[in-house]
Amino acid sequence: MKIVRFRRPSGGPPGYGRIEGDQVVPLAGDPFSAPADGGPPVPLDAVTLLAPCRPTKIAAVGLNYRDHAEELGMALPDEPLLFLKPPSAVIGPGAPIVIPPESRRVDHEAELAVVIGRRARRVPPEEAGAYILGYTCLNDVTARDLQHRDVQFTRAKGFDTFCPLGPHIETDLDPSDLAVECRVNGERRQASRTRHLIHAVPELVAFISGIMTLEPGDVIATGTPSGIGPISPGDRVAVRVEGIGTLENPVAAPAAP
């Protein structure tokens, strides 16, 4: 099932739906509580797709591809290296990534994202699948110069618009060997497969849920492969994950004060 969060052309509050062909079938309620169909289908090209979930937190994993650690000249971590991105950073497909005036270099980072489906606390790796609703694409946008300057990741990873997410949640997917790539203005910058993750999805769910309770709709960003690079106003950034689709966002300069 492909789950979306969308806004109708007539306005009103956002809702959840499932994609069926070229239509969106609205859901009654949210996808975390066994929802039923909730109304007549709406043409997909007539709605605005939003970020497909509203996480209370984004638990992100650094240096989780060997080649990415090598390009940064950093040692491989023995355990997942975690940081958090704030919910206020989340945007949906088509929404602009805004370059903040505080940074001289902002990078793209294409990632597979895990969407949690039920409350998870100290989940064993072998049971992780039962707590996952599905998977989507994520761009862990990063102010690289600020990351190097601060050492801590909060500012560099936390600006508004720095977590594009979407275009939908795919519920029927094996995450163990998926192609992940990023293109900027059509030029491929990143390309790898999730089989090269140092810490695989079940291990990440187990490790993170042993530290913090994961709530329905929370997101785990599984890490980015090598090829990170700068983006600038006017660029278009496309993150594609095999079996899910493509998340595309334009890049914009900050609005004038």
Automatic annotation (TrEMBL):
**Keyword hit for Hydrolase:** yes
Q: Name one GO biological process term.
A: carboxylic acid metabolic process
Q: Does the keyword Hydrolase apply?
A: yes
Q: Where do the coiled-coil regions begin and end? A: none
Q: Tell me where in this chain the Rv2993c-like N-terminal domain is found.
A: 1-52
Highest taxon of the source?
Bacteria
Q: State what protein this is by name.
A: Fumarylacetoacetate hydrolase family protein
Keywords from UniProt, A to Z, are: Hydrolase, Metal-binding
Locate the Fumarylacetoacetase-like C-terminal domain: which residues? 57-251
Query: What Pfam families does UniProt report for this protein, alphabetically?
Result: FAA_hydrolase, Rv2993c-like_N
A GO molecular function annotation here is:
acetylpyruvate hydrolase activity
What InterPro entries does the record tag this protein with? Fumarylacetoacetase-like_C, Fumarylacetoacetase_C_sf, Rv2993c-like_N
Entry's Gene3D superfamilies?
FAH, Fumarylacetoacetase-like, C-terminal domain
